[in-house]
Write a structure and sequence with these properties.
Shape: globular
Radius of gyration: 14 Å
Strand content: 15-25%
Number of helices: 6
Structural class: alpha/beta
Helix content: 25-40%
Length: 129
């Protein structure tokens, strides 16, 4: 039996979490959705599960603008993990920022496969999953 895939949402905004989870549930019926309210909570999850690849999400939907640790800082720390863990995850940045410098900076991270501007909708997410 094929194992369910996991999607992780990393976003500090409760409304954005709910919208993203709702769109995912309509689009991604076969998987589990993990919601992390901060980048540090997500890193704690990865630190606790780094030796168990079956626990690692295959897709991360990452907000950039978060307090304490923003998405760029998360990406910097995520980049320090072993290749096997990094290769198990695709990262899609979901952001309300259309600042050209932020968009160009996101493109420099090899683990980021796509950028989607908020608000999230089904059509933008479908090709990703």
């Amino acid at each position: 039996m094929k194992q369910k895939q996991k999607v992780m949402i990393i976003d500090d905004n409760l409304i954005d979490q709910m919208i993203t989870a709702h769109v995912l549930k309509k689009t991604y019926e076969k998987g589990d959705i993990l919601v992390m309210e901060s980048a540090t909570a997500a890193l704690d999850f990865f630190n606790s599960n780094k030796d168990d690849l079956s626990a690692i999400p295959s897709l991360i939907l990452l907000d950039i603008d978060m307090p304490l640790m923003n998405g760029f800082e998360f990406l910097d720390r995520f980049n320090l993990y072993p290749e096997i863990l990094k290769n198990a995850c695709r990262i899609v940045v979901i952001t309300g920022s259309d600042i050209p410098e932020d968009i160009e900076l996101m493109k420099t991270y090899p683990n980021v496969s796509k950028l989607i501007l908020k608000p999230l909708n089904h059509n933008e997410l479908t090709p990703v999953i």
